[in-house]
Amino acid sequence: MANSSKHGLISLLFHCIFAHNMLHVMSQWPKGGSTRYYDFKVQMLKVNKLCQTREIVTINQMYPGPVVYAQEDDRIIVKLTNETPYNATIHWHGVRQILTCWSDGPSYITQCPVQSGQTFTYEFTLVKQKGTLFWHAHFSWLRATVYGAIIIYPRKGVPYPFKSPYEEHTIILGEYWNWDLVQLERNVTASGGGAPVADAYTINGHPGPNYNCSTNDVYKIDVVPGKTYMLRIIGALLNMESFFTIANHKLTIVEADGEYTKPFTTDRVMLGPGHTLNVLVTANQKIGRYSMAMGPYMSAQNVAFQNITSIAYFQYIGATPNSVTLPAPLPRFNDNLAVKTVMDGLKSLEVSNVPKEIDTNLFFTIGLNVNKCGSKTPKKNCQGLNGGVMGASMNNNSFIRPNFSILGAYYEHINGGFTEDFPGSPLKFYDFVNGAPNSAPNDTGSVNGTRTKVIEYGSRVQIILQDTGTVTTENHPIHLHGYSFYVIGYGSGNYNPQTANFNLVDPPYMNTIGVPVGGWAAIRFVADNPGVWFMHCHLEIHLTWGLAVALVVKNGVGPMETLPHPPADMPRC
C-alpha cells in the first residue's frame, strides 16, 4: 500500500474512533448549550507606552485581547493561528476542561507549542461553569501581554443571586515591560538571578497618569449617580500580586474564581496572578472623579518591585473635565493582614459538596532555593544570593519542563522523558517557616527533574500547601489546572493537624490559592477528570525557577471517565 493512502486510512480510522468516543461522551453531555467560535490570531502590535514605541505580542492586535463571551454549558471552539516569530499556546484559566485536557494549553505539559505559521484548534465545554475567568498565553513570559477575559453568563432565564447591576465592566490588572518578554525570560534564566521590576502596572492595558507620557493613557468608567455596577476584576499580573481599591467606595465581593460567594463588603481587595473577583460598587458619593488604584503587594523580604500606583477613573456623569481626582489610599505593600481579612470573608454562597473522607493525602512544601554555581563564568550566570543560582521548588523538587508534551508521552506510553516519583510529602519534616536551611548556596539547593505525581481516578484528594522560609517566606498564588478545589483552611506558621481549623460547610471553591506568607493552606477536590494537570506558582519567575508539579489523573471506567484521543491537528514539538 502506498504510504500516502496508508496514512489516509490510519487518519480515517483515527477520526472514526475519535468521533465515536466523543459521541459516547457527548450523549451524556449537558444539553442546551450553544457552540461559539472564535478566531485568535497571534499577531505583533506596535504600541506607544511610557515614552517608548515597541512591538508586543497580542491576539488579534488587541491589548488586552478579545473577550470570550459564553453561557453556562456552551461549547467553545477557538482556532489559534500563530503569525509571530515566537511559539505560542493559550491556557483557558479556570476552565475545568472535562475530558478535554488536550485543550488546556500549558506548553510542554499538555501540548507542544504552536510554532510560527502553524494553527491549532482548542475545543472545550463549559460544563456547569459560569462567572469571570480569563485566558492567557502559556509559553515563556508572553502572558504579560497575551491575555483577555472569559465571561460566562448564567443560562437563559437564570438570574444572578443578587440584584442585577446597572452595568458590568471588566478590569484587568497587569504589568508592562519595555522588553521582548521571551528574551527577558532567557536573560533572567541565564543570569541565575531575579527578574527586573515591571516598567508599569496597568489597568486594562493603561498605566495611568502617575507614569511618564501616560497622562492620557488612562482607563475610565463613566457612572450614573445612585446606580450599582459590577466590576469583573482579573489578576493578569506576571510577577507581582496587587491591591485594588476605589476612593471613597466600598466593594462587595459576590464571586471569586468563577464561583458565587456570600456577599462580603470591604474597602480593598488583593489579587494575585490567576485570581478573579466580581465586586458590586454603588455610585453613592457626591459627583466627582474618583481614583481606581492598583499597587503592589509584596510579602517577600528584600525583593525589588515597582512602587508607582496605576490609576484609572471612576467618574460620575456630571463631573467637570478638570475636576480633581480623589485619591484612593492603598494598604502598605506588605500588609499581610489586609490580605487575610479579605480571604477570611470568602465563603461559598451555598453549602458545599466538600469531600469528608480522604483517599489521597498529600503535603507539598513550596518555596525558594539557591543552588550552587556550576558555571565557568559566575559573574554572568550566578547572580543569585551569595553567588548562587536562584531556584524554586515543591517538596524540594524543581520542575524542569521537557521539550515534548508530557500528556502526549503519557498517552502514547512513551517512557524516558518524565518520571512518576514525585514525593507525596517532604523527605523530612522540620520547622519549615522558622528553621528552614538558609546558608545559601550550601544547604539551600533543590533537586531538578520532570517528576509527576500519579493519582487514581475518583480519589478524594487533600493537599496541604506549606510555605517555607528558605531565602524568604512569601505569599505564593498556587494554581491547579483542570480543577477547582475547596479551600478548607489556612493559617500562619507550620501546619498542625491537631490545631488546624477546617471549614467543611461553605469554603470558597477556587482555582488559585494565595498560600499565606509563612503559613499553609489546605485544599480538597475529587480527581474525576483524567489527564495531566499542571499545578504551579502563578508568579512567572517562580514557575521559571521550577515551583511546579504535574499531576497525572488516571482514566476511570468507560467513555465518561476516559480521556479521548488527541485532536488530529495537535502541534508537534
Automatic annotation (TrEMBL):
Enzyme class name: oxidoreductase
Q: Spell out the Pfam families in the cross-references.
A: Cu-oxidase (PF00394), Cu-oxidase_2 (PF07731), Cu-oxidase_3 (PF07732)
GO BP terms, alphabetized = lignin catabolic process
Answer whether the UniProt record assigns the keyword Membrane to this protein.
Answer: no
| UniProt keyword list | Apoplast, Copper, Glycoprotein, Lignin degradation, Metal-binding, Oxidoreductase, Repeat, Secreted, Signal
Matching entries from InterPro entries are given as:
Cu-oxidase-like_N, Cu-oxidase_2nd, Cu-oxidase_C, Cu-oxidase_fam, Cu_oxidase_CS, Cu_oxidase_Cu_BS, Cupredoxin, CuRO_1_LCC
Q: Which cofactor does it need?
A: Cu cation
- Write down the chemical reaction(s) this protein catalyses: 4 hydroquinone + O2 = 4 benzosemiquinone + 2 H2O
Plastocyanin-like domain residues are 42-156, 167-319, 442-555
Which Enzyme Commission number(s) are listed? 1.10.3.2
Signal peptide stretch? 1-19
GO CC annotation terms, alphabetical: apoplast
The entry's localization annotation reads: Secreted, Extracellular space, Apoplast
Q: How is the cofactor bound?
A: Binds 4 Cu cations per monomer.
Highest taxon of source: Eukaryota
Q: Name one GO molecular function term.
A: copper ion binding
What family, per the record? Belongs to the multicopper oxidase family.
Q: What does this protein do?
A: Lignin degradation and detoxification of lignin-derived products.
Its name, as the record gives it, is Laccase
The organism of origin for this protein: Lactuca virosa
